[in-house]
Amino acid sequence: MKYFRSLWVILNLCIATVWTVILIILVGIIDDRKRYTGKVARFWAKWVMLSTGITVEVKGLENIVDGCQYIFTGNHESALDIPVTIASLPISPVFLAKKELFRIPVFGWGLKAAGMVRVNRQNREKAKVSVDRAVKILHARDVSVIIYPEGTRSLDDRLLAFKKGGFLLAIRSGLPVVPITILGAQAIVSKKSLTLNPGKIRFIIDKPIPTTHMEDSHRDALLDQVRDIIQLRKTEYLSSGSTHDNHE
User: Fold this and answer.
1) Half-sphere exposure of 164 toward its Cβ, with a 13 Å CA cutoff?
2) How far apart are CA 108 and CA 122, in angstroms?
3) What are phi and psi of 64, to 5 degrees?
4) How far is the C-alpha of 114 from the C-alpha of 25, rounded, in Å?
5) How far apart are CA 129 and CA 122, in angstroms?
6) How much is the pTM?
7) Residue 184 gets which letter from DSSP?
8) In this predicted structure, which of 9-18, 62-71, 157-166, 225-234 has the lowest mean pLDDT?
């Protein structure tokens, strides 16, 4: 039964993505500040999550002020992380996307129309230029950034090392960093599987960390602070026995 469920989700994902990319390309032509493309992205995320039948419990929405911009920084557990995050946050989201993705016909056009930020990860100097360009984009648009600093999905419950670029972006843009923690997603769909298991996902939004007083030299301290908060949430979840519920 769960295999048919997985196929149903994949079918909905493909249909939703095609329609969303087309709509974002059309809307993005006139939506300079990316307010409406963000609404389209949230529609896509809610469509995908509705097709999964998975319950997402969101905690901490009171920590977000409507109309403000943030750098949301979270752990990366599964292929569901992006739709879960977009559907759970009442914001217009953008991501830092590898420059190679923008070369893909239609999909790349959609990324550009949605205001996704192009980054070069292969060259350190060009990566720094990417950060400065991203700062200008954030100051010109009504969007918040979502990053997963682990860079890849973990194979188990361990939190991987964090990459530093997103924290440098937060400091230079002056936007507050909001730690977000996704719990239970890995038990539903693991990195090496497309099978969708039943379960519940918890999505925790912690209080924003101001960065207006910070300089580039504070980057590592900010990284450690955010990572410690996410690690604490994961430890609390694991020690509570909640993972057992998702394996039943």
Assistant:
1) 10
2) 19
3) -105, 130
4) 7
5) 12
6) 0.89
7) S
8) 157-166
